[in-house]
Amino acid sequence: MNDGGVSDMWIDPALDPRTYGNPIGEKATLREYLANYRITLELKCQGLDAEQLARRSVPPSTMSLLGLVRHLAQVENHWFQRVLQGRTDPPRLYKREDDNDWDFNGAVGEPEVVEDALRTWKAEIAAAEAWFDALDETDLGREVPVGDDGTVSVRDVLVHVIEEYARHAGHADLLRECIDGRTGQ
After folding, report:
1. Average pLDDT, integer, range 137-155
2. Most buried in the list 2, 52, 56, 66, measured by CB within 10 Å?
3. Residues paired with residue 96 on neighbouring β-strands, in sequence order
4. DSSP assigned state of 79
């Protein structure tokens, strides 16, 4: 329902936890965009039960809000832990040898699965933020190896992660609207 006010929005715009300032510097800009997209996904998941979070609203797609949370936990892990920090010790999240799409296929409407996904996603964000906090602005141009494909700059990786979130925020909009009709923000 839209009566010309904010009735169709998630929250009163004055209480929106996202920031839309004028960040100073490239690092601050990248941080703000990434933080806002993370918050947007969290807002799209709020107030839903396990079954709703796992609902696949556009058959035959396996995409769901819960699957997006699991997928983005895996994205955070891959790009921040494995690529930017060069770590090989963390296990690959939500990947199985027999199912490369386990992040979505394993997103079932069970409270334990939801709790695990949200806890894992938040932990990956915290680890990424800790790494990002220590990053010097001059490090944005530093090249890091990407598998057998050569190298990519830290900046390119950060922009790619923002791109992943932006793309999936659009999916989350549509998924949430299919679940309960909520649109906006």
Report:
1. 92
2. 66
3. 99
4. I
Q: How many CB atoms lie within 10 A of CB 74?
A: 19
Rounded distance, CA 54 to CA 155, Å? 33
Residue 151 pairs in a beta bridge with: 145
In angstroms, the Cα distances linking 81 to 40, 75, 90, 110, 174 are 23, 10, 8, 28, 30
Cα–Cα distance between 119 and 49 in angstroms, integer?
Answer: 16
The confidence score (pLDDT) of residue 34 equals 97
CA gap 27, 23 in Å, rounded? 9
Which pair of structure tokens corresponds to residue 15? Answer: 């209480």
**Residue 118 CB contacts under 8 Å (≥ 6 apart), including other chains:** 45, 69
CA 75 – CA 117 distance, rounded (Å): 13
Q: How far is CA 146 from CA 30, 83, 93, in A?
A: 21, 6, 18
CA geometry: angle 48, 69, 144, nearest 5 deg:
160
pLDDT digits (tens, 9 = 90+) for 38-85: 999 999 999 999 999 999 988 889 999 999 999 999 999 999 999 999
- End-to-end, the C-alpha distance of the chain in Å comes to 14
Contact call for residues 31 and 23 (beta carbons, < 8 A): yes
